[in-house]
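User: What would this chain look like folded?
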Amino acid sequence: MIITSASGSVTSSVVSLQTPPHIEVFNGTNFITNGETIPVNFGSVQPNTNGLTVTFMVTNTGSEALNLEEIEVPADYTLNANYPATIAALSNGTFSVQLNTTNVGVSPATFTSPITIPPSPATR
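Assistant: Here's the prediction, encoded as structure tokens.
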């Protein structure tokens, strides 16, 4: 911002607004709101074979880094351990969840249990 006074002197200052990390989660292009129940289809797989994997995108729309702590998935699903520990401001990262197919009839092909993403610091 530039301000010119009547005497002709110029003063400039920069205004910077810091916003805390803000998490948004997507399954493909579908935005998932906090606490929302949206079934995720893992398709059909034969028992004792590699289950299908679904990738989720986590976006940080804040101006500070988002630190992801341990993401939790229900039993009968496996979390890909290579998800980012930190997502920079205005950036994104991904994590994947795989259906385990060792127990016949135990795991539903449509994922209906919660995934918990405890971010730190607290997000809005």
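Residues 19-120 form a domain with the Immunoglobulin-like fold (CATH 2.60.40). If you want, I can go into more detail on any region.
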